[in-house]
Each structure stands twice: as structure tokens, then as C-alpha cells.
């Protein structure tokens, strides 16, 4: 057996012996579910939207109530020369109460409109949670992909270092020229540059994750892809295009529906402005003169919305425009979500097919080719350039396979966002 093969066998044995402690280390690494839980705890976005919805809910209750009654206290017909209350029979002390009634059905409509806006806010908060899970999953899986790429490059660097050692031994025995040793050393240096580039991308991705995870973004990360069997089964059962009915119940659409309904109440509320607003008023007048009876009075008041051109008409036109805008925005949102759902499903389907191709044949073929060229080099039937090229092809195949794996799960993370409210949605976190 050639020295290189004996050395590689020894390295493989050492790596196998170290698998157990490495597994213990990964148990304490941050996994995707832990990252999602931590992000949900630390991100203020959903909580702020929910607080705004609670404020709208409180305002809706207040909007449905009547105005406070008005108490009137005063004096009438007081003589200015003496200011006496018992001198003139018409002088009286007056107490009155006035209550304005809601204009038509405006109180109920205002309460319903406010409640619908509050519901839209709560649904928007749920959508923010889904967006947070999607964004964190995407960045976390990108980081895991980069870490896996670095691991593959480091493993292959050790292989090339063994090749350099092997070439030194052959050069010392005058079996090869120094050019072949230099070629293998150059391959190691180029691989070092790639590892450094990946390290830079890892740091950048950790920096983006720190937005949601804080210092935990710099902790060790579990690189094993998540398990989403329900979603994978759903994807296998689908044919493109995915029908828009799969989006039914999505929080973003729920919020848009509530906004449309609130717009309808806004139009109805604007129509109520054409009705008069009634008020009730009662008062009692006490007289202090002898043999003078006290006075009591009651009245009904109402305004006259006669000049509506620049007030009620304009407000109704504005309400109708807002209602139309809400309907159009809802339609645009549905189209956007449907397009995103189909794009994610198509991407996941394509990546799944390519993953199968790599698993079935491409990875094995690349590795077998690299081993065959290496055996040819050991028997002087292949040159060093071919050995390095074959090994680099095998490295690229391994990295491409890793990119396909993590790209596939990033596409599934997108699908989890779009299907969160659908009948076939997988759980939000598992």
C-alpha cells in the first residue's frame, strides 16, 4: 500500500474515533427551534403591533358609547340693580340636563369599525411572527450551510496536505519533479483562500442573526437540517401551480379582510352623517318669590345637515375611496402571496430533484473519479494537475450538494410562511 493511502487510512480512523465527543458538543449547539424561540422572545416587532391592536380595541369600545350628559347650572332673569332672587317673580335658579344621542346608527358602526381594525392588528401581529420565523430560519440555514461548507473545505484541505506530504516523500526519492510538489502546495493555498472567504461570510451572517438572537448568534450552531416531514409530504402531493385556496386563513389575508370590512363600515358611517343628530334637554327653574310656582321645561334638539356638498359628500367620497383601496390592496396581497407560494414550491421541487440526482450518482461518481485519478498518479499514469482537478471537482460536488440541501430547507421555510394558515400547513415550529 502506498504511504499516502496508509496515511489517509490513519486520518480516517482518527476522525471516526473523534465522532463521539463531537456529537456531545453538538448537543449543546444552538439549533433552529431554539433560535426561533429566542428570536420570538427578543424581537419587539410582533409585541408592538399587538399593543397597537389592543389600543384600537379599547378605542372601539369608547367609540360605541354615547356622549357624556351636560349639566347646566345658572340663574335667569336676575335684576341687575339688586341681584335679588326674591324681588321679581320671573327670577329663577335653573338646573338643566342635556343628552346628545348618536347620529343614526353611528355608535354601533363606529364600534364595529374599531373592532375590525383591532382584529386586523392582531392578525398583523400573527403575520409578523410568521415573517420572523421565516427570516430567522432563512439566515440560520444560510449560516448552517456556510459552516458545513467550511467543514468540507477543511476536510479536503487535510486530504491535500497529505498529498503534499506524499509528494515530498516521492520528491526525496526522485520519483517526481518539484513542479508536482509546488502544484499540490498551490492547491492547499487556494483552498486556504476559499476557507478564509467562507469565514468572512460566516461572520457576516452571524451579524445579521444578531439582530434577532443577540449574543447567541455567535454561539456554536447545529448544522443538521431540520425535520419537516409534514411539509415534505405536502410538497410531494402538490402539482404546480398551487391553488390560491392553500392560502386560506393566512394572517396577512385575515388582516386585509378585516381592513376591507372596516372600510365598509366606514362608508356606512359616512352615510349616517346625512341624518340629523338628536338631543334631549330638560331643566328646572326654582323661583323664590311668594306664590310663584317653579318652572320646568323639556326640549328636543336636532341639527339640520342641509349643506352637504363640502362636508358629508366629501367624507363619503373619501370613505368609498378608502374602501376601494382596501379591496385592491387585498387583491394585490393575495396575488403576491400566491406568487410567492408557487415560487417557493417550484424552487423546493427543483431542489429536491437535484438532491436526488446528487445522492444517487453524482457524489459517488465525483469521488470515484478522484480516487481513480489518484491511483493513476500513484502508478505514474496520471499527472498531478489531473489529481488536483479531480479532487477539486469532488470538493465542488460536495459543496454543491450541501448548498442544495440547505437551499431546499430554505425553500421549505418559505413554504411554512405561506402555508401557516392553510389546511395542510405544518406546525409553526417543531
Automatic annotation (TrEMBL):
<comment type="similarity">
    <text>Belongs to the outer membrane factor (OMF) (TC 1.B.17) family.</text>
</comment>
<keyword id="KW-0732">Signal</keyword>
<dbReference type="InterPro" id="IPR010131">
    <property type="entry name" value="MdtP/NodT-like"/>
</dbReference>
<feature type="signal peptide">
    <location>
        <begin position="1"/>
        <end position="23"/>
    </location>
</feature>
<dbReference type="InterPro" id="IPR003423">
    <property type="entry name" value="OMP_efflux"/>
</dbReference>
<dbReference type="Pfam" id="PF02321">
    <property type="entry name" value="OEP"/>
</dbReference>
<protein>
    <submittedName>
        <fullName>Outer membrane protein TolC</fullName>
    </submittedName>
</protein>
<dbReference type="GO" id="GO:0015562">
    <property type="term" value="F:efflux transmembrane transporter activity"/>
</dbReference>
